[in-house]
Amino acid sequence: MAGLELLSDQGFRIDGRRPHELRKIQCRLGVFNQADGSAYIEQGNTKVLAAVYGPHEIRGSRSKVLHDKVLVNCQYSMATFSTGERKRRPRGDRKSQEMTMHLQQTFDAAIQTSLYPRSQIDIFVEVLQSDGGNYCASVNASTLALIDAGIALRDYVCACSSSFVNDTPLTDINYLEESSGSPEIIAATLPKSEQIVFLEMNGRLHEDNLSRVTDMAVKGCKDIHDILDQVVRDHVSEVSTVHGWEN
Amino acid sequence: MLTSKTFVKKTKRGRIIKIVREHYLRDDITCGSESCQICDPFDFGQPLVAEPENKSRLCLTPHYIIPDTNVVLHQMDVMEDSSVQNVVILQTVLDEVRHRSSPGYKRLKSMLANPSKHFFTFCNEFNKNTYVERQKGESSNDRNDRAIREATSWYQDHLRSEGQSDLIIDVVLLTNDADNRRKAIQQGLKAFTVHEYVKSLENCGHLVDLLSQSQMSVHSQDRLMFPEHLPLSEIQRGIKAGRYFQGSFMASRENYLEANVSVHNKDEMVFIQGHMNQNRAVHSDVVAIEMLPEEEWSCPSSMVLEESSEKIVEDSMETEDEAIKRKKIPKELRQPTGRIVGIIKRNWRQYCGILRPSAVKEGTRHIVVPAEKKIPKIRIETRQAADLITQRIVVAIDNWPRNSRYPQGHFVRKLGNIGDKDTENEVLLLEHDVPHSNFSEAVLACLPKLPWIITDEDYKRRRDLRHIDICSVDPPGCTDIDDALHCRELENGNLEIGVHIADVSHFIRPGTAIDKEAAERGTTVYLTDRRIDMVPELLSSNLCSLRSNVERFAFSILWEMTHDADVVGTSFTKSVIKSKAAFTYAEAQMKIDDTAQNDSLTRSLRHLNRLAKILKQRRVDAGALTLASPEIRFHIDSETHEPIDVQAKQIMETNSMVEEFMLLANVASAKKTLEEFPDCACLRRHPAPPPSNFEPVIKAALSKGFNIDVSKGKALADSLQSAVVPSDPYFNTMLRIMTTRCMMQAVYFCSGMIPETEYFHYGLAAGIYTHFTSPIRRFSDIIVHRLLAVCIGADASYPSLTEKHKTQVVCNNLNYRHKMAQYAGRASVNLHTHIFFKNRTTNEEGYVLFVRQNALQVLIPKYGLEGTLYLSDGKTKSKPRFTYNEEANTQTCGSVTFHVFDQVIIELSIDQSNVQHLKLCLKLVKPEIPGFSVPAHSSEDSEPPKKKQKKGQTKK
Lengths: 247, 956
Ligand SMILES: [Zn+2]
Description:
The complex is a heterodimer of chains A (247) and B (956).
Chain A: E1 25-29, E2 37-43, E3 46-57, E4 71-78, H1 94-110, E5 119-129, H2 134-149, E6 158-165, E7 168-171, H3 175-178, E8 184-190, E9 195-202, H4 207-243
Parallel strand pairs in A: 4-5
Antiparallel strand pairs in A: 1-2, 2-3, 3-5, 6-7, 6-8, 8-9
Chain B: E1 3-13, E2 15-25, E3 63-67, H1 69-74, H2 76-80, E4 87-90, H3 91-100, H4 102-113, E5 119-122, H5 140-160, E6 170-174, H6 178-186, E7 190-192, H7 194-200, H8 205-210, H9 232-241, E8 244-251, E9 258-263, E10 269-273, H10 275-278, E11 286-291, H11 317-326, E12 337-345, E13 350-356, E14 365-370, E15 378-381, H12 385-388, E16 391-399, E17 408-417, H13 421-431, H14 441-444, H15 456-461, E18 463-464, E19 470-474, E20 483-489, E21 495-502, H16 513-521, E22 525-526, E23 531-532, H17 537-543, E24 551-561, E25 567-584, H18 585-593, H19 600-622, E26 632-636, E27 643-648, H20 653-676, E28 682-685, H21 695-703, H22 713-722, H23 730-742, E29 747-750, H24 779-791, H25 804-837, E30 842-851, E31 855-860, E32 865-870, E33 883-885, E34 890-893, E35 896-898, E36 903-911, E37 919-926, H26 947-954
């Protein structure tokens, strides 16, 4: 039967968005008390919880100590109920490990690591519900949790994916678009300086289109940044009102 | 701006899982009306005009039309009529059409893109005002109907709401679903059936004929004739359980009571016989079948049986089915036989045909006899019968109820008078799905401006080969010359061979309108008196054609070879050439043979000819097959455009010379592109035929005492080579003709899609092969040119060039188009044969090619023609009885026995009893069989048929 039409002639995607539109983002900071920082984000139906501990002394083997910078330790996992089909997801399966490594690389680049030598920062990410863009939501949630924990960052790290269908770049792709076989670019950027700290590509994309699709992802990161920034500002003003700091 | 809404959907994928998808509802979706003052300006599609002129007695105010899904699907011909304008296609409808019929969707999309139709897509599913959620217990059909009503209601309010201009525009919902209509009227909407609405239109009488007859009352005997079709769900269960099989239905061209179903994922065919077992399946439908118990298995009757088109009273279907059953089929001949239990997908298209005169003069119900014999007759309703009776017409099938012998359909359009050559050509092109309309403005806009000048920039980018003595060798009258050759002696004693191919990819840039059109057409189609170009004439016959004495762009392959044809080096380059002469095969042959000539071109041709012979011998040694298929050439009168003479094509040495170098160039390009693009090269393969295909050849050769070894290509080539009867020089050719028929189709494919072991080209005995040498007339060659240009850095790549799935999709279309072009070409030859022999009766020498149960297939070498000599018509008892010996493959009558390869003398004439299918009529002259053969024709010359001979025709 007829396959999916990812982009209609009228310019709408399957879920009714236009190519450049993000999914709806909702997020909160400080959702746990035990952690030093935490955040919860919903990007469409992808829902992610992030908790940050640290900076604190290195736990476990002393050999891991880095003398000039902080050790960033990430752990990524998906809840058993996070996808349509319930399956056991043992911690540390290959996919999670890869994701963990990617997160680690991303935040190594974004945290001002030299400020916290010989210590450790733990970032725990749990995907509660998955509908595409797991990495992006994880990065965005972690950023918020790090901000909540008061850890010095070079800038927000925002991540966004993009794809390419019918000669048109699409931003922030959902599971259906992700699994359609069209190419996917995932970028994490420091929006203010427009530096790309992480870039991944899946599927085949012709060289001629690479910059257009990457630009779409970078633009998405910027849009996400504006939303996150607003949330952070609201959160800070709310917290400061509670504490009576407002002048 | 984004309102998020989540809905839950259950789908089956092995097990039931819950799928949650987001669905964003928006407030920025426009209604598409030009008069609207409220909505944002639209950014896509064709707007609905501000003052629609739909004049209906049912709705006097100007209005837009909103059809529901079934109306769009079933009344496509009405929708396509130019008088139907200003139609809102709801997204709900568009989606449903897309899921239910892909050709329907394609047609709908082209209507939406047509600027004069004013069809607008309204995205009601994304609009927050018109989106409806499926309620508990509501079927998805009911939900969609509700969504359609909701959208109609929104339009009604929106177009009348405050702020809109004074002119009130209404909307009219068209639905044939009574329940939907009732609910809509309750809601205060204007809703009608299509039939009511169309009949209420002013000046739209012709639209009424176009209406699909979904509710036409059926002919007098209102009893159920056919078994019921199973519902789809039951079919699916049955297929899963292995009770039923899915396959495509292929009706027999020769016998309307017989068909085969090629079961998916199975090699063998399942045989279907009789009306009830066929159960209303039409050729190319996807069907579900059930196997019959083995004792009921049957086999093709090897009888040629045509449903008479003149007979008004036909045998009842039961009688015909009974007649089949009574025949006892010996066990060893039985084939797996089945019956149709249900239809999975109808693949109906529009069919060309003619109206059969109705018994009742003033009646409106008529029978249409399709031109394609695989298609059953179609019942239509029309008021213009008197007009249509002399015409070729196009009709569509709408449905086939259980109580009707024939499917029901409706008239679509007329093509012209029966027998007019133009009309017949049109039929031929339509029936073979050959796109042949004039090139659109958008395509013509892609052509270079004249005068076309080669700039200095061009010279810089290309190798200048203008000084070399290049020439082309083609059939006479060829204007689309896509290859030219040269050969010159190098200083080191070796030879330089150049094959220069028209650089079409220079003019046809990827992604342009002309590129898309060429990809869609796939190939130039050669009819006997007409050529349907793949690219506009300016390119095909002028700028790309490598004519003599003009500078042209070429893609050249240059080889350095020793005098023994060993390749020392190969190079590819884009070039500028200036051909010195455009020879015909005969002219080139004469130059080679004429010892007096010794100019550079002649020397060049002699070298080429000599090298070609060495190359050919090498291929033959490697197991390449030399096959034969009779080809025919007509000499067409330049004024009347009637064929005045007909001959079998002459094959000369020079044909083989050009062919050899084209093969060399094709293989070289295949190797080069595959090396650079292992995943996305466009290649051509020719699978080895299954050994069972060769049975008729083996049997036939054995009757003359020859063993044909088909185990390997090489063995086959050798055994064909040695099968020579000195007294009968034509025997070997016939054997080769028969072998050609056993072959599989060669196909284009994308290298990344199949394992490397299957790249092989059987016929040419080549490891890999492609088409590079005819880019003017084949799109595959254009792709190969582009790939090759990227390989040598002469041109930039583009995205879809390196996507193997896209390339494969292109290849699939090319394969289809090539097959169709071949069939169309053959049909055109038939058409001209019929015109040529219409007023002639001649005696010719022929050979028996196949022996069938009631006929002999006879080949007439003089014309390269093949015809059927009927021995009995199956029904009336002809006087001399022939006895068919299935084992020995012979027909015997008295002292005369016909074997395969036997020589006969045949009288050729045209049977004009069926205007739609003129038939070549063969009658036996020699050997004489009293009461069957006809006397020898006095003179060989053509002359109008005499009365006396006419009589002879009825003797059968
Ligand atoms: Zn409007």
